[in-house]
């Protein structure tokens, strides 16, 4: 950890690992461990800075969520009974604490990048992109992505923030919350809604009101592979370079890989590494280097472990390249 070029932060630990559902639910609490094991196997756990997640404050949660919904999650957290949505997101004892640590963990990652203690950061159990202000949805209790956008604006006065999403499911919770906000750059590559939840994210959905024409939704046919990913990704790069964001959030759900049990895209883990590497290049070219990755979905444990370690690897490699550019400039 004495290497000064090692400026990639991993936010991990029991506080966020507890976020998950039992009884054969795809989003189990074993996902965190599957990722950590792979990181260790590849010798990468010693190359990253580490932090545990803090809980989000009530005020932070209410930047995105309605107070009445936050209260409901708190109440259900005591009994652990019932669902928080129409059948995908069961309550469990301690769900409030676990879900608020996921939000706080994403804020920990964002804070570190803004403070300059890390240039990039990654949180495996973040990216809960379906949660809406007034309700849970699709395994997502609190929307850490949405709270992070508000955080960057309120605490750091950033205006133009990019949210990039390569999870197989459309990031509807983020999209509709910022639908009329022209300064939230939104690029989402996802399986189209013919068979898959949530069914939103058509290409024609480009934003509303003053933001009409400013968002990029790229639905892909079931079975789409890396070739289709790369074609779509080129459009994401063009969009970001034109939009000049001051911070980039990446939701890198691994359920877009072939072999996921609940989706039908067929990317390989190279797509995720490519997205992460290219976002680092873009952020560096924009002069700030700020990129935070959030794990998102992914229900085949081997896939999520490989895709997310690939993202962390790309962050580390981009740091090493940054170091060598600096060394060359100093000569
Ligand atoms: N796609 C999908 C899918 N699979 C399930 C599911 C499968 C097994 C279970 F035991 C419980 C649920 N639910 C869904 C989707 C929600 C997907 C959420 C993905 C989250 C993310 O990866 O994007 C980010 C973390 N829900 C539905 O398809 C809705 C239903 C229509 C079907 C399932 N029942 C349980 C509820 C209604
Ligand atoms: Zn997903």
UniProtKB/TrEMBL annotation:
- On the tree of life, the source organism's domain of life is Bacteria
The chain positions of domain Histone deacetylase read: 25-313
Q: Where is the signal peptide?
A: none
Q: Name one Pfam family in it.
A: Hist_deacetyl
Family, according to the entry, reads as follows:
Belongs to the histone deacetylase family.
Name the record gives this protein: Histone deacetylase domain-containing protein
Q: Which organism is it from?
A: Steroidobacter gossypii
């Amino acid at each position: 950890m004495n290497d000064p070029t090692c400026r990639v932060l991993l936010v991990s630990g029991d506080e966020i690992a507890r976020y998950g559902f039992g009884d054969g639910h795809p989003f189990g609490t074993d996902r965190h461990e599957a990722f950590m094991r792979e990181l260790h196997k590849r010798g990468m756990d010693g190359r990253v800075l580490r932090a545990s997640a803090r809980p989000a404050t009530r005020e932070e949660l209410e930047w995105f969520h309605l107070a009445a919904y936050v209260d409901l999650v708190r109440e259900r957290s005591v009994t652990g009974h019932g669902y928080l949505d129409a059948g995908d997101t069961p309550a469990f004892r301690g769900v409030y604490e676990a879900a608020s640590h996921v939000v706080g963990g994403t804020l920990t990652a964002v804070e570190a990048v803004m403070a300059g203690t890390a240039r990039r950061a990654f949180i495996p159990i973040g990216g809960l992109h379906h949660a809406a202000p007034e309700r849970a949805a699709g395994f997502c209790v609190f929307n850490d992505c949405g709270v992070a956008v508000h955080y960057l604006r309120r605490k750091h006065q950033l205006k133009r923030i990019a949210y990039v999403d390569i999870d197989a499911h459309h990031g509807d919770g983020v999209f509709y919350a910022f639908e009329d906000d022209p300064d939230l750059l939104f690029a989402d590559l996802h399986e189209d809604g013919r068979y898959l939840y949530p069914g939103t994210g058509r290409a024609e959905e480009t934003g509303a009101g003053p933001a009409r024409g400013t968002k990029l939704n790229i639905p892909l046919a079931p079975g789409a592979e890396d070739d289709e990913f790369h074609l779509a990704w080129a459009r994401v790069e063009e969009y970001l370079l034109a939009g000049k964001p001051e911070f980039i959030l990446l939701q890198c759900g691994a359920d877009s890989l072939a072999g996921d049990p609940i989706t039908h895209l067929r990317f390989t883990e190279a797509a995720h590494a490519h997205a992460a590497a290219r976002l680092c290049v873009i952020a560096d070219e924009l002069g700030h280097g700020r990129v935070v990755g959030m794990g998102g979905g992914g229900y085949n444990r081997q896939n999520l472990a490989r895709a997310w370690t690939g993202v962390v690897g790309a962050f580390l490699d981009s740091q090493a390249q940054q170091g060598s550019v600096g060394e060359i400039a100093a000569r």
